[in-house]
Structures are given as C-alpha cells and as structure tokens.
Amino acid sequence: MAPADAKIGTFDIDGVPLLSVGKAAFSLSEGAVSGPIKSDLGWHIVKVKKIIPPSTVSFAEARSKLRQEIAGEKALDLLYEMSNKLEDALGGGANLDEAARRLNLPVTRLAAVSPSGLDKTDKQVLDGKKDQKIIKTAFETPKGSESTLGEAGEADIFTLRVDDVIKPALLPFGGIRKRVVDTWSREQRINATRDLAKKAMDMVKAGRTWEDVAKAHNGLIETSAPFTRAGQGLKKPLPASIISDLFKNAQGITAQGSNAQAQFIARVSKIVPAQPAAEKKGMDALKRELSQSISNDLTTQLVMGLRLRHGVTLNRPAIDQVY
C-alpha cells in the first residue's frame, strides 16, 4: 500500500491502539517529528501538532460521572451473579418456570414467532433487529429443549424454551383473503396516484400554473423553507430521490418522486449559495463526517491489503452463524 497521511486528532496514551506509536508520540515535544517507528502494521512517522497540558477535575465535577460508572459496574455485577444463580437452578434440575419463580425473574410466553418477529396474525411480538439474538437462538434450539444463557444487548441476559416447532406451510386463501385484497388495493392506489403525478408533471411542463395543476388533481401546494442536500430545514420530509434531483438541476426545473404516503412534484424556486464562514457548526460537522469517511476507507483498504498480502480469507457465513 502507498504511504498516506492520517490525522488522528486529540488522544491520550491509552487511546492509541499501537503501544509503540503511543510511546513515541508522548516522548516528543510540540511540533517535533519522530523517526521511523515499527509496529505490527508497518512503519510510521509521527508529528505532534499540539500538546494539551493535563488537568485535574474536582470531585464535585466528577461526582455525576463516577456515580454512573459505579452504578453501571454494580449493575453488571448483579447481572453476572443472577446469571450464575439461574444457571445453577437450571443445572440442578429445575425447569425454566421453576427457576424463574425461585429468582423472581420475569417470564414471557409467545404463542408463535417468525424469523422476522411476527406471530400468526402478523402482529410484531419481537423486534426483528433489536431481538435478533433471541429470535436466532429460538430457531436454533430443538423442540422441547432450553437454550443456554445468552446476552441480549449490553444489560440483558435471557434463556428460552421451545415448546413446539410450527412447520412452514401455505396459508389457506380464506385466512389471507383480506391481506391479499388490502395489498392489491394498495398497489392499485399507488399506480393510480403515480399516473396522476405523471399527468401533473406533463401539465407543468406544458406551461400550466401550479394552481391549475393542483386544482385539476385535488392536490396541495406547499412552499418549503430552504433546505440542504441532507433534507435539513424541511418541516415535512421529502423523498430522497426528489431532493437529489432538485440539487442536480437548475432553478425552475421540476422533479417527481414518491414515498409510502404520497406522490410529489417539486420545483426549485430559489438557490441559496452556501456560506461556509457563517455556518461554522455545519462545516465542522461536515469535516468530521468526511474525516470519518476517509478514515473508514483507509481502514478498509488496509485490511484488504493485509488480507491479500498474507493470503487471509474469511468464511463470512460461518462467522455470522457464530456471532
């Protein structure tokens, strides 16, 4: 890989993942440049831009943070202790209900759950993303068995029992008739509104006024405040495709797009030039985003380069199955 500069910002010595680089950096004076430093990732040269003197925080200032840290540590200790007691109870022959009753732990019963967290009536009983670990464990646990203890997030543990496994099967039409009708009706409404939006676009391009177009199609005319490429400044969200098209086109050009609720046509009425000097907060945020993006790209390139150099391959399906 070619050499590259990397600005790593302000850090203390504990924040440097490479110990040799951290020691060298903290031995330099402000403005100084180190000699070549070897690490497991190659060779480095460090330049110290600025040294921030150490400061002491009073107990009163640190009280709140210390309280949170101590409370968090105690909570984790209690969680660990409780998990051990639960494992002991289950290992001693108690079933899940008995163990939970002894330790005063909550038990939740689900009649059925799908891989996406839905029950038989399509009601969301588990969050498909947040509870993915629980769902995955349920589908890996044999019928009539209890799972080992698992972690669900940073402060939750769980175990579960699978009472029954419902084999996948096609639902009878009578059971899904309403769902089919609702889906078909929704698609027809979407197609109809899309056709109306196209006709409205044609009328605008033909020179008709926006008032005439809105009246002809029972639509609403709204004027938004100035907004950015990311949609900041909009009181009501617009489809990302429309925002992208509007920023690509010149003033007066019309764009069309839709979301789950409505069809939109929009026109740029005014272009407000960016003022970097007056938008320091926004510029700082943009710099951070770009810096993070560049850092992520460099890290990805480094990882790929190391894999190619050392012949490392990953079995991604096996990793996903374990973690």
What does it look like?
With 323 residues, the protein is mainly α. The protein has helices spanning 19-25, 59-91, 96-102, 132-140, 173-205, 210-216, 240-248, 280-310, 316-322, and strands at residues 37-39, 42-44, 150-151, 157-158, 254-258, 263-267. Strand 1 and strand 2 form a beta hairpin. The longest helix is centred in the first third of the chain and has 33 residues, at 59-91. The protein is flat, with a radius of gyration of 30 Å. The mean pLDDT is 82.
Write a brief structural summary.
The chain has helices at 19-25, 59-91, 96-102, 132-140, 173-205, 210-216, 240-248, 280-310, 316-322; strands at residues 37-39, 42-44, 150-151, 157-158, 254-258, 263-267. By secondary structure, it is mostly helical.
Distance between the terminal alpha carbons, to the nearest Å?
A: 31 Å
Radius of gyration of CA atoms, rounded to a whole number: 30 Å
Portion in helices: 40-55%
Structural class: mainly alpha
**Secondary-structure element string:** HEEHHHEEHHHEEHH
Main β-sheet, spatial strand arrangement: 1-2
- Would you identify the regions where 5 or more consecutive residues have pLDDT less than 50? none
What's the overall geometry? flat
Oligomer: single chain
On the 0 to 100 scale, the average pLDDT is 82
| Proportion of beta-strand residues | 5-15%
Number of continuous helical runs? 9
What's the β-strand tally? Answer: 6
Largest sheet features = 2 strands, antiparallel
**In total, how many domains does the architecture comprise?**
4
